[in-house]
Amino acid sequence: MKPIMLQGHERSITQIKFNREGDLLFSASKDTKPNVWYSINGERLGTFDGHTGTIWSVDVKWDSSYFVTGSADQTMRIWDVETGTSLACLEQKTSVRGVNFSYSGTMIAYTTDKMMGHNSELVIIDCREPNDADGTPVMKTQVTPNNSKALSVLWGPLDEFVVTGHEDGCVIKWDMRTGKKLIVGQEHTKQIKDMQLSHDGMMLITASKDTTARLWDLDTLEALKLYQTDRPVNSAAITPLVDKYPHVVVGGGQEAMDVTTTSSRIGKFDARFFHLVFEEEFARVKGHFGPINSISFHPNGRGYASGGEDGYVRVHVFDDSYYQFRFDY
């Protein structure tokens, strides 16, 4: 399983995302230019130029027509994937931490930072009229001071609610129409670094600084499973082939600033594979020279990609041994 190494960023990767077909891979980093790559051979298609700060999160619409980025330059931009032109630039009061397209692709939910006296907000806009959105978003609600700031956001199925992951480790489900809290799930003890849906949209996996990843029922926000590691988890993903290969991949490593005090040979920066049901680790993949910041399965389930603090994106395709592996029970 020799990975394809994608070198296109000057600074550490913040998030990577496959589109729905899996032929394109989008990567964002702490430099100002998100990249898009062909996932089959690692060829770079191009960059999206326009931001002036760190790109915290990215998302791509289901038909790969639009691409949205949230940045520390206090703007959220909507791009045309094909041409790389910026279609809209929405200015915020603070930096934009999480962005997510709704299932239908007509709306975008995003969260903003709590800083400079401004509260963290959860906002939903209609991306068909983005320039109109400065005036009246579909929904806007204050996350702080009642809760800690929201770092990531996901849509539930059928665009009825959104779920946010917070700095204090709670997961909150919000009604999309009223902006009211529906359910609060508090299982993690530290900041949630990443949230991803399962392929069918029924389950949610969260990765937290408290060294665990957790699997949730999206409907009830009941914590179903716990994947325990021994260092902070930055990202976790569920395979699309969950009925045949019930696996979860978890990536992390200790904080970038603590890395110099330890040896990399101890296997700090491996991607770890867990069995979804039994919560047992069964495989590790080495490779990165720093913590893994974002990890994502290919939509066909036949490989995965990881982006690290070292600024590389590594695209792996599974060997036959992965499919032959059977968990004994």
Short description:
With 329 residues, this protein is an all-beta fold. It is built from one helix and 28 strands.
Topology:
Layout: E1 4-7, E2 13-18, E3 24-29, E4 35-38, E5 44-47, E6 55-60, E7 66-71, E8 75-80, E9 86-91, E10 96-101, E11 107-112, E12 121-126, E13 139-142, E14 150-155, E15 161-166, E16 170-175, E17 181-186, E18 192-197, E19 203-208, E20 212-217, E21 222-228, E22 233-238, E23 247-252, E24 271-275, E25 281-285, E26 292-297, E27 303-308, E28 312-317, H1 320-324
Task: Describe this protein's structure.
The chain is mainly β and 329 residues long. The protein is 2% helix and 48% strand. The protein contains one helix and 28 strands. The strands form seven sheets. Strands 1-28-27-26 form a four-stranded antiparallel beta sheet, with no helix packed on it. It has a four-stranded antiparallel beta sheet with strand order 2-3-4-5, with no helix packed on it. Strands 6-7-8-9 form a four-stranded antiparallel beta sheet, with no helix packed on it. Strand 3 and strand 4 form a beta hairpin. The model has no long low-confidence stretch (mean pLDDT 87).
